[in-house]
Amino acid sequence: MSAARWRVGPSDGPTVADVLERMGGASRGFAGAAAEGRAFLNARRARPDDVVVEGDELAVWPARREVPGGPPVEVLARWGEILVAFKPAALPTAPERRGTRSLITEVAELLGLSAPPHAASRLDVGVSGAVLCATGARGQRHLAAMREAGRVARVYVGVAGGRVEGSGTWDAPIGAARARGGRSLPAVGGAGARDAVTRYRAIAWAGGGAAAATLLRLEPVTGRMHQLRVHAAHAGAPLLGDRDHGGARSVTTARGRVIPLPRIALHALRVAVPDERGEERVAVAPVPDDLRDLWAALDGDGSAWEEVLSAAPEAASLLGAPSGTR
Q1: Which end of the chain is more exposed for a tag (fewer CB within 10 A), N or C?
Q2: Alpha-carbon dihedral of residues 18, 20, 26, 27, nearest 10 degrees?
């Protein structure tokens, strides 16, 4: 959805709060927009008491819709200034233009931190799972060094449309390409394409015909934007629910049931990184119920989820335990 825009006139009032009231206030959802981080004055995030002058532009973005009954933010593990948090699919990793509610702000509130932690990795809205964060400058420097040295290892699980066989590496370079509506989206061979490497393995298959699906274990070697999503789509098996890259908006089961896909069928399952003393640390984010339910509706074998981590020596059970840590 696009922003509502207002050009400040001579009688609109001296502050952002006054202009928001002129724009419609509570009746149009504008009254709390500045406090929620959804109001932008001349393209910069505005506060309610910011002064405005005639000719300024105020833009207000609609609030992100909440998903009732979704899993809560959870701290899966913490080692000094490093932590791993569980991000629900509907939540952005960091504050963005549709509101300040985000994983890092909720982690700060949960732990009583004076400032939100730094997200050393980000998951897109629509993707759930483990996010590596630093709560201080020392931890941030450490994670940056580990990432540069290739010492941060991640395992994702995804449900792709179509049938993928075996295992291997996807290594098509990824750049930016124009999408409908003027947006630039990551794409294979796009402008400024850079090397991108993903290891994949097909774990199990479900459905058939137009509803065929593959449960994939995915390991990003590099960290390009949308990398796993772009590589899966380029392989002819876009992730279910990934509308930006050709994924299905809904699936129809063999029994004729139509299942809408409000999220991307991708979950950051496991992260491993050495702590500041060099000890390998591991955290596992359990697979959310909505992905399990989708796989079950496609007649997928529920035991396949355990196989995703079968190659990981520190694998923790994904059934019952809230997290796995070392």
Answers
A1: N
A2: 120
DSSP for 235-288, written as a single string: TT-PBTT-GGGT--SEEE-TTS-EEE--S-SEEEEEEEEE-TTS-EEEEE-PPP
- Tens digits of residue pLDDT in 197-244: 999 999 999 987 777 999 999 999 999 999 999 999 999 999 999 999
Q: Which amino acid is at 280?
A: E
Domain boundaries, the chain: 4-60, 74-325
**Rounded CA Rg of the chain:** 22
What are the pLDDT digits (tens) for 299-309?
999 999 988 87
Beta strands 280-284 and 266-274 are antiparallel
- In this predicted structure, what is the pLDDT of residue 139? 96
Q: Are 184 and 177 in contact (CB under 8 A)?
A: yes
What is the pTM for the complete model shown? 0.79
Provide the CATH topology of domain 74-325. Pseudouridine synthase (3.30.2350)
Taking the C-alpha atoms of residue 295 and residue 292, their distance in angstroms, rounded to an integer, is 5
Burial 225-236 (b: 16+ CB within 10 A, else e): ebbbbbbbbbbe
CATH of 4-60, one of 1.10.287, 3.10.290, 3.30.750, 1.10.3470: 3.10.290
Residue 316: per-residue pLDDT: 41
Query: What does the block give as tokens for 75?
Result: 């701290």
